[in-house]
Amino acid sequence: MSLPKRKHPRLKNFDYSQNGCYHIIICVKNESVRLSTVGRGLAPAEAVVRLTKYGEIFKSELLNLEDRFNCIKIDKYCIMPNHIHILLSIENAGTAAGASPRPTVSDCVRTVKSIFTRKCNAMDDTAGRIIFQSSFYDEIIGSVSYYEQVWRYIDENPIKWLITHHKI
User: pTM for the complete prediction?
Assistant: First the structure.
């Protein structure tokens, strides 16, 4: 039986360690809901994201990337029940950055996913459990207007979750 050919998610010949801004989406394996819950806020069209213990660990490790790689900045993020949106900037990538002098977007995602998975597996005593899909989705942000559009998209994601899951 031949498996379908998988499309490579990164752009060929693009240097993902160069200065720039990236929209990253990381998905939980099998769309399992484990990182947060989304509930109604006080206003009619308001949604509130409440992190689970797993979501809190992910948030901590995501924000730790800025200390691990000094050229990385987390501009915005939203930890949804089964996926995470991140606006990540790489600035001054040519300077020394701790363990990796020029971390790529993949280095950042791999680091946060790996540490998160290890901590959760240790906490739950479940060695070898796979929590995330093997890859991730990324977009290269090429303009200020697109950056603002992605920012709004991330802001609106929780209310869209409520609408699509019939909780509003």
Answer: 0.85
24 phi and psi, to 5 degrees? -120, 135
With vertex at residue 86, the alpha carbon angle to CA 57 and CA 74, rounded to the nearest 5 degrees, is 80
pLDDT digits (tens, 9 = 90+) for 88-142: 999 875 555 455 567 899 999 999 999 999 999 999 998 888 999 988 999 999 9
Specify whether the CB–CB gap between 165 and 47 falls below 8 A. Answer: no
Report how far residue 30's alpha carbon sits from residue 33's, in angstroms, rounded to the nearest whole number. 9
What is d(CA 152, CA 159) in angstroms, rounded to the nearest whole number? 12
Total number of residues shown for the chain: 168
- Confirm or reject CATH 3.30.70.1290 for domain 20-164, answering yes or no: yes
H-helix or E-strand containing 61? helix 53-68
